[in-house]
Amino acid sequence: MDASGLPVERSITPYLIGLGLAVVLTAISFGLAATGALPRSTTLIVIAVAAVIQVLVHLRFFLHISFSTTPRENLIALAFAALLICIMLGGSFWIMFDLYHRMMA
Amino acid sequence: MSDGVIFALLFATYVVMLGNTAGGPTGKELFSLERAAGETALLLLSSTTFGFAAVALAAADRSRVLLWLVVTVALGLGFLYLEFGEFSGMIAQGAGPDRSGFLSGFFTLVGTHGLHVSIGVLWIFVMIGQVLIKGLTRPVASRLARLGLFWHFLDIIWVAIFSVVYLPGVL
């Protein structure tokens, strides 16, 4: 942590770990999409899980967010943004697909 | 955070519009997995090389900061080159944003991300200039740290884009 209030990373190791994990997760997703080795629904679930893990990898190893070193208020702000996104995404899908369902019925 | 909310809503718009192809081409006919993989690789590498620049900044090594910023900006420009090629190819075959609701959603979402990357590239050029002229002073270091947040954030959005748009699109 420096005067700017942002974390300072002095070693390239976390970036290399992040890169390695991101490459593996990306390769799994693209590999499944390219080969079609699994049924479509299974592939979509694997892609979704890999994406969530990869976002967490990026937050942890590129943006250095962790529960022990990141200030509490930054974590709360992040959690609040996540909550807002869930409300707006969930609300949009609920309304739009309900509308779609009623129009097609 | 607010930028994350903007992208979340553009994703919602895209998913809602997904079925509205108006008889036009679908993602399966338009998306190239190879090109998406190339874009992904360039952006991921540029995120890593920006990390190397941040480590060089912590070590106050000016020439290495400049080196990694130049590498990062080159990777960013490579990404934009691929994306512009993709967009112009789609528009040339009549699959522009005016073709269907699905394509409007696609161009708004991916185009907004591309616009952010363009601004990020411009910002990196500005910071290269500041490091050259002013050196690694405290304000410059602080600006570089903020630019880093922006650049890593854009890669996170890209993860969501290939997982929501390209991969399900070609399935």
From TrEMBL, chain A:
Keywords: Cell membrane, Electron transport, Membrane, Oxidoreductase, Transmembrane, Transmembrane helix, Transport. It is found in: Cell membrane. Belongs to the cytochrome c oxidase bacterial subunit 4 family. Heterooctamer of two A chains, two B chains, two C chains and two D chains. The keyword Transport applies. GO terms for biological process: aerobic electron transport chain; electron transport coupled proton transport. It comes from Methyloceanibacter superfactus. The keyword Flavoprotein does not apply. PANTHER family: CYTOCHROME BO(3) UBIQUINOL OXIDASE SUBUNIT 4. One of its GO terms (cellular component) is plasma membrane. GO terms for molecular function: cytochrome bo3 ubiquinol oxidase activity; proton transmembrane transporter activity. Its main location: membrane. It holds the Pfam family COX4_pro. The lineage of its organism: Bacteria, Pseudomonadati, Pseudomonadota, Alphaproteobacteria, Hyphomicrobiales. The chain crosses the membrane at residues 12-38, 44-63, 75-97. This is Cytochrome bo(3) ubiquinol oxidase subunit 4. It is a multi-pass membrane protein. InterPro entries: Cyt_c_oxidase_su4_prok (IPR005171), Cyt_o_ubiqinol_oxidase_su4 (IPR014210), Cytochrome_c_oxidase_bac_sub4 (IPR050968). Cytochrome bo(3) ubiquinol terminal oxidase is the component of the aerobic respiratory chain of E.coli that predominates when cells are grown at high aeration. Has proton pump activity across the membrane in addition to electron transfer, pumping 2 protons/electron.
